[in-house]
Amino acid sequence: MSGSAITMMLIGMVIIWGGLAASIINAVSKSKKAN
């Protein structure tokens, strides 16, 4: 793969995993506030 393709793949992975992590943290913090 070319450098630009690898860069775009890494950016996509960061966005996907970053969003997943953020949603998990958000859900955990909301459940803690509810209790």
UniProtKB/TrEMBL annotation:
Annotated source species: Cytobacillus spartinae
InterPro entries on file: MaAIMP_sms
Entry keywords, A to Z: Membrane, Transmembrane, Transmembrane helix
Protein known as: Methionine/alanine import family NSS transporter small subunit
A Pfam family per the record: MaAIMP_sms
Lineage of the species this protein comes from: Bacteria, Bacillati, Bacillota, Bacilli, Bacillales
TM region positions: 6-28
